[in-house]
């Protein structure tokens, strides 16, 4: 499948503290999710050692962790590369993402604590602030934090782990869309996302599991439409990308 060249500029990466495998893992993860390291890019171990100023051991440990996260492929006798982003599987991604997000929202509404709500509100407010200051790095990060805070409130490690991986895949899709779509439309969509976040948080606060579940579908459908619109404009070949059936 051929995709026109993406207009992705080098983005600022939040510098993690310290040195070692965690430092390298955090930095590489940010570079992968922001598309500074492109899908399919080879990870040159020697270059990474020099770039991060560490030995080979923490670099290798970080790559192994990224492979476990699904962000890196380790190729026998050929080193490692950033996991490709297969746009032909996007419809499957959204099927899984919708179901998982609905379950997470539903359980969070039933099981959340006041401490959970504090974390959820802080992440929601940070997303709103990032949108207002036009900070793409901040809004993508805050969106991840918000949905993971909701997942933690669900008190189910299996759905939390699954959502984490789906969100990380979604972050790469989001960067493609954000950097290549007309900015007035991006801003309008982000304003809509702020409202959708407010609605989801309100449902979780009210312990309204049915509404939280339904809003998870609404929120996923909004993301689905944004990416579909991008793909319709960007791909030289047709992709079957149906909208989800109504619940």
Topology:
Layout (H helix, E strand, L loop, with lengths): L20 H13 L8 E2 L1 H8 L3 H13 L3 E4 L3 E4 L7 H22 L2 H19 L3 H18 L3 H24 L2 H23 L3 H26 L13
Antiparallel strand pairs: 1-3, 2-3
The percent of residues in helical segments reads 55-70%
Order of secondary-structure elements: HEHHEEHHHHHH
Label the CATH architecture of the largest domain. Answer: Up-down Bundle
Text of the CATH class of the largest domain: Mainly Alpha
Using the coordinates shown, work out and report the CATH topology of the largest domain.
Answer: Four Helix Bundle (Hemerythrin (Met), subunit A)
Number of strands: 3
Q: Gyration radius, to the nearest Å?
A: 18 Å
Ranges where pLDDT stays below 50 over 5 or more residues in a row are 1-18, 236-247
The pLDDT mean sits at 85
Work out the strand percent. Answer: under 5%
Overall outline: globular
Q: Tell me the number of helical segments per DSSP (H or I, 4 or more residues long).
A: 9
Q: Which structural class matches the secondary elements?
A: mainly alpha
The domain tally reads 2
Terminal Cα span = 32 Å
């Amino acid at each position: 499948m051929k995709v026109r060249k993406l207009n992705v500029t080098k983005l600022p990466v939040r510098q993690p503290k310290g040195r070692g495998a965690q430092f390298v893992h955090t930095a590489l993860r940010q570079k992968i999710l922001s598309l500074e390291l492109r899908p399919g890019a080879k990870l040159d171990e020697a270059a990474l050692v020099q770039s991060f100023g560490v030995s080979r051991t923490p670099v290798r440990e970080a790559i192994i962790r990224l492979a476990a996260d699904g962000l890196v492929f380790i190729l026998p006798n050929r080193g490692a590369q950033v996991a490709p982003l297969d746009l032909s599987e996007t419809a499957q991604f959204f099927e899984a993402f919708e179901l998982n997000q609905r379950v997470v929202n539903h359980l969070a509404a039933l099981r959340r604590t006041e401490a959970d709500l504090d974390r959820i509100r802080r992440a929601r407010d940070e997303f709103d602030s990032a949108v207002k200051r036009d900070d793409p790095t901040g809004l993508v990060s805050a969106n991840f934090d918000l949905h993971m805070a909701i997942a933690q409130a669900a008190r189910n490690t299996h759905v939390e782990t699954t959502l984490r991986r789906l969100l990380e895949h979604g972050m790469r899709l989001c960067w493609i869309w954000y950097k290549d779509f007309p900015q007035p439309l991006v801003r309008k969509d982000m304003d809509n996302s702020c409202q959708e976040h407010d609605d989801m948080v309100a449902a979780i606060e009210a312990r309204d599991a049915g509404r939280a579940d339904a809003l998870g579908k609404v929120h996923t459908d909004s993301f689905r439409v944004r990416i579909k619109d991008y793909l319709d404009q960007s791909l030289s070949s047709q992709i079957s990308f149906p909208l989800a059936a109504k619940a």
